[in-house]
Amino acid sequence: MTLHPPAPRPPAAVRVLVADDNPVVRAGLTALLSGRADITVVAEAADGRQACEAADRHRPDVVLLDVRMPGVDGLAALPYLARIAPVMMLTYSGEPETVREALRRGAEGYLVHGEFTADQLITAVRDTGARRTHFSPTAAGAVLQQLRSANAYDDAGRAAPDTAPTRASSRGFTENLSLMQPDVGQSSGSRPGFPLSAREAEIMDLIASGMTNQQIAGACFISEKTVKNHINRIFAKLHCASRAEATAAWLGRRGDAR
């Protein structure tokens, strides 16, 4: 008799809590997510207080959280919810400061309604459960704006004193930008004294923030091979042989790299 190994068990469904004060939005999200075999909506909430109570009761794998809700809003509830499960902000609120505040309070990602497809939302829910972050274009733009605003450059293209971001401070905002459109966050051009194209300047910003080639590829929607090609050109233009050397030049810590 031939013995066959047991069939592998299907992966456990991602258990989701949906928090939004609009009953139509809640119903639509629940219907969309529940139509997938590997996703289960375990609870709904109409405000932040209900969301916290439901999270305590159901211990979801992912929380989808609106920003503006009556009573306890999403930002107020976020620190508590983030201790229970990864939180994806899912909202119409795309103001840069709101995006940045959500990230400071523990959000894993940020999607603005109207900027993603149903399939992208499904992918984002699955990835959020695995701590892989997604941003829609408006949110991604706010993140890159925060990174770039941390830098101040003098007329020679060198970082002004105490303004160059550390790897640790910028990395928290840029480590997993994985749902950006190619034109989001495009650099307005090379910094003075640096002969880089707009795309190369963008990639150099991400290198300086500590991102890997794989993360840069996801952030810019290009292949890792294309990233490597850009990096080779960047190194040649900056006369550098390593990421550390290029980052030092880019952040103005090497006076002869101009």
Notes on the protein architecture:
This protein has 258 residues and is of the alpha/beta class. 45% of the residues lie in helices and 10% in strands. It has eleven helices and five strands. It has helices at residues 23-34, 48-58, 74-82, 96-104, 118-129, 137-149, 167-174, 198-208, 213-220, 224-238, 243-250, and strands spanning 14-19, 39-45, 62-65, 87-91, 109-112. The chain has a five-stranded parallel beta sheet, sandwiched between helices. Strand 1, helix 1 and strand 2 form a beta-alpha-beta unit. Helix 4 (96-104) crosses helix 6 (137-149). The protein is globular and about 55 Å long. It starts with 13 loop residues before the first strand and ends in an 8-residue tail after the last helix. The model is unreliable at 152-191 and 253-258 (pLDDT under 50). Keywords: DNA-binding, Phosphoprotein. It comes from Streptomyces griseoviridis. This is DNA-binding NarL/FixJ family response regulator. Residues 189-254 form the HTH luxR-type domain. Residues 15-128 form the Response regulatory domain.
